[in-house]
Amino acid sequence: MSEESIEVVRTYLRVWNAGDMEGVRELYAPDTVMEVPTDWPESGPFVGRDAVMRQLNQARAAFDSDSVEFLTDPVAVGDRVVVRTGWHGIGRGPQSDMEWTVVSTIRDGLLVNVQYIWDHAEALEAVGLRE
Q1: Distance between CA 67 and CA 40 in Å, rounded?
Q2: Containing H/E element for 67?
Q3: 65-70 and 75-77: which strand pairing?
Q4: Which 3 state secondary structure label does DSSP give 32?
Q5: Continuous H helices in 1-131
Q6: Reported confidence tier of residue 1, pLDDT bands at 50, 70, 90
Q7: Model confidence at 62, in pLDDT bands (50, 70, 90)?
Q8: Is the pLDDT of residue 79 over 60?
């Protein structure tokens, strides 16, 4: 299960960077939940595939182009995958470069819960790991 879960996260990165938002949509379960920190640009949580996709499309539309990269190798812990991520957006104002750790819960090959956490150590602790 862990290698399959990591592959879902890797696929997400590939389809996002290809600009394939329909491919991104297909990776989310219909009842998915996206959780964000309290100081995130938009308050969450976002519940359901449509709400998650509205949020992602809104974020993406704020820039002429953007990309995501893994800053650490994805690590699977049970049905969750943890990976430190960098996001870069350019155009329509100042360039944006942000880092956060994503904890993705995956079931049946779909993202059912995604948590964005600023602090990597906190994210690792949430799944029972340490730096």
Answers
A1: 18
A2: strand 65-70
A3: unpaired
A4: strand
A5: 2-17, 21-26, 49-61, 120-126
A6: low
A7: confident
A8: yes
Look at 44 and 77; give whichever has higher pLDDT.
77
Distance CA 32, CA 26 (A): 11
CA distance 75 to 28: 19
As a whole number of angstroms, the distance between CA 97 and CA 88 comes to: 5
Tokens encoding 104: 């993705």
The most confident of 91-95, 113-117, 124-128, by mean pLDDT: 113-117
Domains of the chain, each with CATH number or no CATH: 2-126 (3.10.450.50)
The total of other beta-carbon atoms located within 10 Å of residue 74's CB is 20
DSSP of 86-124, one letter per residue?
EEEEESSSS-EEEEEEEEEEEETTEEEEEEEES-HHHHH
Single-letter code of the amino acid located at 85: T
3-class DSSP state for residue 117? strand
